Amino acid sequence: MEWTPEPHELADLELLLSGAFAPLTGFLGHDDLHAVHERGRLADGTPWPAPVTLHLPAEVSPGDEVTLLDPEGLPLATLTVTAREADGLVSGPVKGLGAPEHGPFARLRLTPAQVRQELGGRAALAVTMRGPLDDLSEIVATAKDLDALILLLPLAYGEGGPAVVRAALRAKEQLPPGTLVVSVPLAPRAEPELDLELRERVAAAYGAVEHFPGPEPVTIPGPPHRRGLVVFFTGLSGSGKSTIARGLRDELLELGGRALTYLDGDVVRHLLSKGLTFSKADRDLNIRRIGFVAAEVARHGGLAICAPIAPYAATRAEVRAMVEAVGADFLLVHVATPLEECERRDRKGLYAKARAGLIPEFTGISDPYEEPDDAELVIDTTHLSIEAAVSRVLETLRSGGWVR
Question: Between these two residues, 380 and 326, which has the higher pLDDT value?
Answer without folding.
Answer: 380
